[in-house]
## 1
Amino acid sequence: MIQYSDEWLWFTLALALGGRTVQEWQAVISENEFRRWGQFYKDYPFDDFHRFYRPAAMVAQSMGGGTMKDKLDWLQPEAIPEGMSAADIATIKAMGFPLSRKE
């Protein structure tokens, strides 16, 4: 799933609103409202990274030093793409290529 795609936003929205499946939310949320939720997310992100991981990393940073990036990477490691190993990922990063579609 591509981060920030419509599919990703539907799953993020379903998690944030709760109580229904993605399919159930798609049945009751109009296209216009969905687009407005997308704009709202751009202005005020509400995924787990922004709601939980960043605040936790900030607390850990204030108490233990180190870098925010190290703490965020530990809290939410990037998924290893299918067909690749951890060694492949390390090599790609060492060569300076972005791994994530969001970079």
## 2
Amino acid sequence: MKQVLGDEAYAAALAQRDLAGPDSSLPGREALDHAVTSAGRSCLAAWCAQQPPAIAQRIRLKLPDNPELDGPVVPPSMSGARVLLIG
């Protein structure tokens, strides 16, 4: 996990471990990579939706076509989610 997250994020997670939910097994690396990538695309899509059209279009020109970026912005489901605030 440390290798995937990087030293800084891993250290922050350890420092905040008292905020973690109940123990559960982590998804495999491939599933975790997919979940993080999908969440990142959703975040970028939401950000683009708030920008002036010219800026959003310029950002989209630099990225490959993807339904998560091209479709309507849908708020993520928070059911069963754990949020780590790093600050």
## 3
Amino acid sequence: MKGSTSQKLCWLGNSGRILVSGTSGRKDGRYCSIFDIRQINSGPIIHKKLDNENFDTQLHFDETLSMLFMVNLGQQTACHYFYYTDPDLVEDLGDGSSCL
């Protein structure tokens, strides 16, 4: 992930994993990557395109719900994902109008 939009980092509870979100250098959308901090040099466990937007976001992970919330700055939407730790999966929730 590269680009002029800042990269965001979020701890995923007590899973020992972090999520990094940002845009590509080609401005073709937002991506997220999940890393295991115990094996950070192995690269991301997941690398996934989220959408075609290039908005900056704020991230919040609710460990009790296993939900990742992304608030789009400059746009009035809040997006959310469900995070499964085993197997590693980030599931899209919603219809795209108010969530990713």
## 4
Amino acid sequence: MFTMATVFVFRPGNMSDPRQLKRMNDFVSEMETINAPAFGSWGPIGTLYFMREFLAYETSIQSKLVYQLLEADRESMGHLSR
């Protein structure tokens, strides 16, 4: 037997503020580590947390941008050496 909880945070605060983001991350972590005898938690795999998904997306976009900039830089250096 299990019970599923759905939690909506309607006023999460300014997620650009590291303190507020940490507070929200701590809340999510606390919910993910509940280990009551009758309930327990699936941990992060059972959580859809927008900020976690967004930060992974943002990191992948930044990586692609850096790669594109490096490629453009290499191409322009190649044109200069000719």
